[in-house]
Amino acid sequence: ERKGHRMIEKQVDVKTPDGVADCDFFYPDETGAWPAIVMYTDIGGRRPVFSDMAKKLAGEGFAVLLPNPFYRAGRVPVYENFKFGDEKTTARMNELRPFVTPAGAARDACAFVEFLSQEKHVTGQIGTAGYCMGGGLAMRTAAAEPGRVAAVASFHGSNLASDAPD
Length: 166
Hints:
Layout: E1 8-16, E2 19-27, E3 34-40, H1 48-59, E4 63-67, H2 87-96, H3 102-118, E5 122-131, H4 133-144, E6 149-155
Parallel strand pairs: 3-4, 3-5, 5-6
Antiparallel strand pairs: 1-2, 2-4
């Protein structure tokens, strides 16, 4: 946290064309406006490790929206005892994977960017960051909102290219 300031962490619901995405929203404090980032998780979804990364970014002077990429399947938590390599976790990943599609990602992108553009604690253009599955979501957000997204970061992004027309 910045010295003398209190980090703000809120749970927010963002209306999308497909429903309501439950998200966490972090920003440095109540006294200003900052550039925003939509941070997309890996297939493990919104969990403490991503909240910690979002808090760190907010501490550096950003407003960070951390959506539940699987909101179409349910609100967080979407996993019980998430652990990479665990048989139950792998089975749940396979159940959740179909809820994240290129077309849905584009619709969500517009809703997330619009939410941020209406927030009083956000100023300027928006960036996106994504991890593994989220890397593709970050890229699709920039493609869906090219005039409003100024930067994209994909960390070990997956599903970035295929033979599919989209």
